[in-house]
Amino acid sequence: MVGAFFNFIDISNPLYKKIIIAATPFSVLLLYSDYEFIIPIAVGVIVFFIAFCIPIVKVKSSIGDLSYGIYIWHFPVIQMMMSMNEFSNPNSAIIKTLLIVLVLAYMSWHLLESKFLNNKGRVSHCVN
């Protein structure tokens, strides 16, 4: 519901952008509150802020496009870490998970994804 609400906000209006920027620090604090019904709203505000208020970050092309690798690898890594009971110390587990996922995404891009994307034009004429 939070995402649906934000769908109707006109981000080109500077007032809405200022409201989101002002609400983001408060939303981060709400993540640690005891009011669980507020947490989805706080997460929605934070995601909206990240998506529309932070300038686009350019990544070196030598690193590659890690977004799909992060998407693919995050769940298995989190499940593996949970099965190993690594989340007894959440801060350590988050750092370990982030490092493992980034390494796997980097390897996935350079060893698999980029190779397939480079060959996509060659294979398509064989299928038809």
Characterise this structure.
The chain is mainly alpha-helical and 128 residues long. The protein has two domains: 2-52, no CATH class; 67-120, no CATH class. The protein has six helices and no strands. The longest helix has 29 residues, at 90-118.
Question: Summed up, what is this model?
Answer:
Helix content is 71%, strand content 0%. The chain is mainly alpha-helical and 128 residues long. The chain folds into two domains: 2-52, no CATH class; 67-120, no CATH class.
Topology:
Blueprint (H helix, E strand, L loop, with lengths): L1 H6 L6 H17 L8 H14 L14 H17 L6 H29 L1 H8 L1
Helix pairs in contact: 2-3, 4-5
Instruction: List low-confidence stretches.
Output: none
Residue fraction in strands: under 5%
Through-space gap between termini: 43 Å
Shape: flat
Give short descriptive properties of this protein.
mainly alpha; 128 residues; flat; 71% helix
